[in-house]
UniProtKB/TrEMBL annotation:
Residues 267-276 have a biased composition (Gly residues). This is Amuc_1100 family pilus-like protein. The keyword Metal-binding does not apply. InterPro entries: Amuc_1100-like. It comes from Luteolibacter arcticus.
């Protein structure tokens, strides 16, 4: 009898142990292979990340230089534009005594009113309270801290009113000026800003020519820069003109051709070479046996016909378009270009250069 048969339990336990050990060895080898593959993958990815971190940032050198040139050109164009607006760049006038500002406002109002009164052929009708949008300061003075910016705005408003008066509107309806920060005791924060908008709303009544002339004048100023933010124009006539709105006038003084009727340049009965125009009665046919009128001969006028209108330019269609009155609303921003902030570093460099130049023999 063999040992396995005599020791079945020990043999079975040994077999199970051997199988388990083989399984453990296989699992360990497989796990080790997976770990190695994962480690290699991680190492490869880490190497790629490190390579990307050490490489030069996109774009390429050529593209980078092109981008730098574009930025430089843009900065130059912005600088050139800023120089173009330098003539409009003015500091805010110093604050003055409120009573002195009230005197200035009164004088500006008188000058503007005189300009509107002198409009011909008829003076412009002004609102009952007319103080260029500063009516609030007819009963009480402004804050002293607001008189400087109000003086600047008043100068621009005076110019606006002079231009509007020259345009000759029929009626100035209203001027509305939103309150500025300084008027309520708050300082204006100019940090990071290159300009400031001082809005004003103007409403007037006039014809198309007055509107065109006033809007055209806004870019003629040498001291102030105006921007039209919005405009609304309403025609006094809501409906389009009809044929009944046109009136014909007769040229009484013009010489009439022989026969009392205008010669037909085309010839033939009925006018226009025998054609009957809309609104005209067709000519009666010639009597039996009568010869038709020769080409170019004037048609005989009926005995009871009224005196005909003169031909050519004697009949004129009266103008029915463009003469209507308009209600106009304009929201205009008076742009105050702020003084450029002083660059301390640049100023220091310029000062050093000036010192070196002064020390040269």
């Amino acid at each position: 009898m063999s040992w396995i048969q005599e020791n079945k339990f020990a043999a079975g336990l040994g077999g199970i142990t051997a199988v388990a050990a083989a399984g453990l060895i296989f699992w360990g080898v497989k796990a080790s292979g997976d770990y190695t593959a994962a480690k290699d993958e991680y190492t490869t990815a880490a190497d790629e990340v490190e390579k990307m971190a050490q490489a030069k940032v996109y774009p390429s050198e050529a593209n980078l230089q092109a981008k730098k040139k574009a930025v430089t050109d843009y900065e130059k164009s912005v600088g050139d534009m800023q120089k173009a607006f330098d003539k409009f760049r003015a500091p805010t006038p110093p604050n003055v005594d409120p009573a002195a500002f009230s005197d200035t406002l009164l004088k500006a109002k008188d000058v503007a009113k005189k300009a509107f009164d002198e409009v011909r052929p008829q003076a412009t009708e002004l609102p009952g309270e007319f103080f260029l949008g500063l009516e609030a300061y007819t009963t009480s003075p402004p804050e002293r801290g607001a008189t400087g910016i109000l003086t600047y705005q008043l100068e621009a408003l005076s110019e606006l009113m002079a231009n509007l008066a020259a345009a000759g509107p029929t009626k100035l309806i209203n001027i509305h000026r939103p309150q500025l920060e300084e008027e309520s005791g708050k300082p204006f924060d100019a940090k990071g800003k290159s300009y400031r908008a001082l809005p004003v709303e103007v409403s007037f009544y006039g014809n198309e020519a007055s509107l065109r002339k006033f809007v055209s004048s806004l870019d003629d100023s040498k001291a102030h820069y105006y921007v039209v933010r919005s405009i609304r124009v309403i025609n006094e006539k809501a409906k389009a003109p009809t044929a009944a709105d046109g009136n014909f006038e007769t040229g009484e003084d013009e010489a009439k051709p022989e026969g009392g009727a205008a010669a037909d340049p085309f010839g033939g009965a009925g006018g226009a070479g025998g054609f009957v125009l809309p609104g005209d009665e067709p000519a009666a046919p010639p009597a039996d046996g009568a010869a038709p009128a020769p080409a170019g001969a004037p048609a005989a006028a009926p005995a009871d016909a009224a005196a005909p209108a003169a031909g050519g330019d004697g009949v004129i269609l009266q103008q029915v378009l463009g003469s209507e009155k308009l209600n106009v609303f304009l929201r205009i921003d008076i742009i105050q270009f702020l003084e450029a902030p002083v660059d301390a570093k640049k100023a220091s460099v310029e000062a050093k250069k000036a010192t070196v130049e002064a020390q040269k023999p």
